[in-house]
Write a structure and sequence with these properties.
The protein contains nine helices and five strands, in the order ααααβαβαβαβαβα. It has 209 residues and is α/β, with parallel strands linked by helices. The chain folds into two domains: 84 residues, Methyltransferase, Methionine Synthase (B12-binding Domains), Chain A, domain 1; 122 residues, Rossmann fold (3-Layer(aba) Sandwich). Helix 1 crosses helix 3 and helix 6 crosses helix 7. Bound molecules: CO-5-methoxybenzimidazolylcobamide.
Length: 209
């Protein structure tokens, strides 16, 4: 059986080709897609984060790991879906202004779509007024905000405030997530919910739709 450690190593090395090979082999051998994602890819990315913090890895190498992760996630995506209940609630999602991290957000998007929800993904570095315009135009049930940097967390509050000031706060549920975000931060900024991972984000969004 392909070793989960080998998957982590290929991810950390940013070796996309090897990573895809290993992921495909693991699937063939019967390893669950969810295990490959959580034990191989997400834990591997945590190691990348540690190395980045300790200056053992630098931005270009981290980007290579991120690209490798994206290609591996694409393989897993069709296998990770929950049973869609075709409720077709609408979710708007984006990473807040100043923040370019999108791997976690993309995983959340993937889980939301697999749960049968209609998702509009505004991408990264999304300013409060861009979220606001999109809410007015598309009238989603839920807004999901992602932030990976402590320095961009305040932008979540600015986004919530902009929505409140525009008078449409009661028309939408706002949920927040990302590594530095916490339940108490979510409460402090007036969000409706905090989701620690993609699975709970999708669960929460379904409840609000
Ligand atoms: Co960045 N970076 N980075 N980085 N990066 C972190 C976040 C960091 C913790 C690394 C470290 O120092 N240990 C650190 C932040 C420190 C802090 O603020 N406390 C950091 C830094 C400092 C930076 C730069 C400032 C570095 C620099 O330039 N000197 C810079 C900032 C750029 C910017 O955004 N303006 C930067 C840049 C980058 C890259 C571009 C190189 C790359 C991003 C590539 C990309 O996303 N396309 C990158 C990466 C890859 C990371 C790490 C290594 C991995 C992040 C990741 O993808 N994790 C990260 C270290 C780490 O987190 N361990 C780090 C895997 C992903 C599946 O997890 O995103 O947490 P995550 O998502 C989870 C949950 O958080 C949750 O669900 C997901 C899946 O379960 N979730 C949500 C996420 N969003 C959600 C939204 C929801 C709900 C749940 O809505 C409701």
């Amino acid at each position: 059986m392909s070793d989960i450690n080998e998957i982590q190593e290929a991810l950390i090395a940013g070796d996309g080709e090897k990573l895809i090979e290993l992921v495909e082999a693991a699937l063939k051998e019967g390893t669950e897609a969810s295990e490959i994602l959580s034990e191989g890819l997400i834990l591997g990315m945590d190691i990348v984060g540690e190395k980045m913090k300790n200056s053992d890895m630098f931005i270009p190498e981290v980007l290579m790991a991120a690209h490798a992760m994206r290609s591996a996630v694409e393989i897993l995506q069709p296998l990770l879906g929950e049973d869609g209940d075709a409720s077709r609630g609408k979710v708007l999602i984006g990473t807040v202004k100043g923040d370019l991290h999108d791997i976690g957000k993309n995983l959340v998007t993937m889980m939301l779509e697999s749960a049968g929800l209609e998702v509009t993904d505004l991408g990264v570095d999304v300013a409060p007024d861009v979220f606001l315009e999109s809410i007015k135009k598309d009238k989603p049930d839920v807004l999901a905000l992602s932030a990976l940097l402590t320095t961009t967390m305040p932008m979540m509050k600015e986004t919530v405030d902009a929505i409140s000031e525009s008078g449409i706060r009661d028309q939408i549920k706002i949920i927040v997530g990302g590594a530095p975000v916490t339940q108490s931060f979510a409460e402090e900024i007036g969000a409706d919910g905090y989701a620690a991972d993609a699975g709970s984000a999708s669960q929460m969004a379904k409840e609000y739709c």
